[in-house]
Design a protein that fits this description.
Elements lengths: L2 E2 L12 H17 L1 H4 L7 H8 L3 E2 L4 E5 L5 H9 L5 E6 L2 H7 L6 E5 L5 H7 L5 E6 L8 H14 E12 L6 H14 L4 E5 L6 E7 L9 H7 L1
Parallel strand pairs: 3-4, 3-6, 4-5, 6-7
Antiparallel strand pairs: 1-2, 7-9, 8-9
The structure holds S-adenosylmethionine.
The site of S-adenosylmethionine has 24 residues, from helix 2, helix 4 and strand 4.
């Protein structure tokens, strides 16, 4: 019987304080270099990481993908939360972050790749469709064409019944790109998201989760062509 994540006590992040301080400085430095791509001045909190996984069914042998791993806040939570025979694939575009991630969690493969290429990367690395995809990508600041390609990759890479979970900052909820992302996700994933407010993060955030229906509705040919 699958365990629900609410039944599993998530331990504190095992990171030493020194590692965390270093990660925060690194994150800030990379934000200054690539503000729109990093999209935040600090890594997410452990509280937000916990909420990203809360309510997702765990089952033996499950496969999880993470998009935009950064300094690994969600990656660490996923590694702790996965069942013993589960595994994860984390994609991150920034090689500086990837250097911090590689080899840190035995059951999570961290690669320097664009989230847009998830389906191809998964195939190359011998991964089948994912049970769940967790994203820390800053959709409120990424170019909308990039967002569309990423959502298309998610749609192609997710099992029917699988979930796509991401978050948006409360202050950015009404940003035009944030709204366009939500509408595009509904269109491509064919379902409305659930949402949960998380105050224990700076800034406060809303966790959004879509579940891919068994029969995903077709999107128009024109739209698919333009996505390739
Ligand atoms: C807001 S940070 C989130 C980092 C981490 N998940 C967290 O919550 O602390 C967004 C991350 O997405 C990465 N990113 C942005 N665009 C990307 C893309 N197209 N493919 C993969 N990673 C990307 C950035 O380099 C950055 O590390």
């Amino acid at each position: 019987m699958p365990l629900r994540s609410s039944q599993i006590p998530l331990r504190r992040q095992p990171d030493a304080p020194a590692r965390q301080s270093f990660d925060h400085l690194l994150f800030l430095r990379q934000f200054v270099r690539h503000p729109l791509r990093v999209g935040a001045i600090l890594p997410s909190s452990a509280r937000l990481a916990k909420c990203m996984l809360e309510g997702i069914d765990r089952r033996a042998g499950m496969r999880v993908a993470e998009l935009g791993a950064g300094t690994g806040r969600f990656t660490a939570a996923i590694a702790e939360w996965l069942p013993e025979d589960g595994a994860g694939l984390a994609l991150e575009i920034d090689p500086v972050f990837v250097d911090r991630l590689v080899g840190r969690w035995p059951r999570i493969e961290c690669v320097c790749e664009r989230a847009e290429h998830l389906a191809e990367v998964a195939k190359t690395h011998g991964w089948g469709p994912f049970d769940h995809i967790v994203s820390g990508l800053p959709f409120a600041s990424l170019p909308f064409e990039t967002t569309r390609l990423i959502l298309y990759a998610v749609r192609r890479s997710l099992q029917s019944g699988g979930t796509f979970t991401t978050f948006q900052y409360v202050h950015g909820w009404h940003f035009p790109l944030a709204g366009r992302f939500r509408r595009e996700a509904v269109r491509q994933l064919g379902s409305e998201p659930t949402s949960k407010l998380v105050l224990g993060n700076v800034p406060s955030a809303v966790v959004l989760r879509w579940r891919k229906p068994t029969a995903t509705p077709a999107i128009s040919g024109d739209a698919v062509e333009r996505l390739h």
